[in-house]
Amino acid sequence: MHSESQYYIMFGPDICGFGNNRLQVILSHRGKYHENNKTLKCRINKDTHLYTLIIRPNATYEVKIDNEKVTTGGLEDDWDFLPPRKIKDPYARKPRKWDERLQIEDPEDKKPEDWEDSEFIPDPEAKKPDDWNEAMDGVWEGPLIPNVKYKGQWKPRIIDNPNYQGEWIHPEIDNPKYKPDPTICHYYNISVLGLDLWQVKSGSIFDNFLLTNDEEFAEEVGNKTWGLRKDVEQQWRELYEEMEKKKEAEEAKKKREKQRARQEDIWGLDEEDEDNEEEDEEEPDGKPQQEDGADRAFLGKKEARFDQKDEL
Hints:
Blueprint: E1 9-16, E2 20-29, E3 32-35, E4 51-55, E5 60-65, E6 68-74, H1 75-78, E7 86-88, E8 103-105, E9 120-122, H2 134-137, E10 144-146, E11 158-160, E12 172-174, H3 215-224, H4 226-264, H5 269-311
Antiparallel strand pairs: 1-2, 2-3, 4-5, 5-6, 7-12, 8-11, 9-10
């Protein structure tokens, strides 16, 4: 088997980063792969989960997670194996006078005569300068000031449309290209089970794969394997997480105490003590080597003298 090998069914969790969390159910039909039209989500946490896909002879299916039903339906309804049974009538057209407006403006509502919808008005106290020459300066326009009576833009009130007919629905007809296929998902000679893994984090474990035609037996096997371990696994995980939290809290506390001691030590005595401790830790490894080297040199001299005496 390799990455280009053909398959009948691809089923399992597809989790990639934070954006992709999907339970894939891909089925093969007439040489093409079809994904489920529904968006099925995985269970994302640190516990082990049991995934089950049931394909029945009556062209229905069911997906379960941890032996609990997640979704069910028909194969033709949730996969695009075949052309749709119904299509929109190509000759049907919405009537021109069909009114889909739920609410309309009241045609009998009129703007009040004293309604001021001008935000700015000409200053009534402004006067044209005496030396204003319209031939050279153009038509004089006085400055604008805010209108104290301004009420905003007037709009008629909204009422329910008495002629509302609802949303027009395009009529459908039988699709002449649709032909039922009783062989959908009838697979024969299934002899290989493979894993398609794209993994960037270690620690994922896959086990207890089961392919059977007995739904009750599959549920029983799940309860006797995953069902027996899930509670114990959850307890161990919670205990481990609690121990990790305590460890992190202790390390953070020591770090804070160390920082506080440094802030209070204005003379830098603690730093000198730390440096001395580091030197003391280094000396046992260094001094004996120097002493051993001196002793060897001294012994070498003695041996040389003895040799000289022996020669004499």
